Amino acid sequence: MSLHEPETDESRLAAATWDVPKAQRYSLRVDESEMQSTPDEVLIGRIANGDRLAMQVLYARYHVRVFRFVVRLVRDEATAEDVISEVFLDVWRQAGRFEGRSTVTTWLLAIARFKAISALRRRPDEELDEETAGAIVCPSDDAAAAPVSSMMNVRRPMQVVIRSLRPEG
After folding, report:
1. pLDDT at 40 (0 to 100)
2. Cα separation, 67 vs 60, whole angstroms
3. Rounded Cα distance, 121 and 38, in Å
4. What was the pLDDT predicted at 50?
5. Contact between residue 83 and residue 70 where contact means Cβ atoms under 8 Å apart
6. pLDDT of residue 35
7. Domain containing 53: what range?
8. Is the Cβ–Cβ distance between 103 and 40 less than 8 Å?
9. What is the CATH number of the domain that holds 83?
10. Is 94 exposed, middle or buried (CB count within 10 Å of its CB: 0-12, 13-18, 19+)?
11. C-alpha distances in angstroms, 140 versus 127, 150, 151?
């Protein structure tokens, strides 16, 4: 390129990659296009070796499916977004532990299910405000029905006791 020729995208690319052998430059372009048809198991193996492109391909392939699965469980889009972030972060960190005893899809959805259940357990119980609680009538054995707001004093301590219970095992 002479001093009088305008700089093009091609010339900038050539200048940026002049120290990379031609075969490697070609290989990089082929990897990007061929990665789309790479089997999931191969992607997981490449992710285990720190391949970010493989992670991007896996994420692009499955993030919508995992999101839809999670949002059905947690019934909240913001929580579902948090959960899928955790899922794919775990995939990045734990890809080397994938044993291939199931499909990658099953593995992803199992991780997502576990993360969604954990998120539901962390979610605080939705409290009734006093106005709503007062409007709800609780059926009782005697003729006079007690409003739910009068039972709120019993409900809160019971929630604390229930949360403190742990399954035997």
Report:
1. 94
2. 12
3. 37
4. 94
5. yes
6. 77
7. 39-122
8. yes
9. 1.10.1740.10
10. middle
11. 22, 13, 12
45 within domain boundaries: yes
Phi, psi (degrees; rounded to nearest 5) at 109: -70, -30
Report the alpha-carbon angle 133-134-140, nearest 5.
90
**Same domain, residue pair 93 and 159:** no
In this predicted model, what pLDDT tens digit does every residue of 21-43 receive, in sequence order? 444 444 444 456 677 889 999 99
Tokens found for residue 18: 């002049």
Consecutive sets of 10 residues in the chain, 169 residues long: mean pLDDT of each?
Answer: 49 43 46 78 95 95 96 94 96 94 95 94 65 52 48 55 60
Q: What is the pTM of this model?
A: 0.57
State the residue for tokens 């430059």: 25
Q: What is the 3-state secondary structure (H, E, C) of 39-66?
A: CHHHHHHHHHCCCHHHHHHHHHHHHHHH
- Asked if the structure places residue 74 within a domain, the reply is yes
Same domain, 104 and 137: no
Same domain, 72 and 139: no
* Contact in structure between 83 and 108 (CB atoms under 8 Å): no
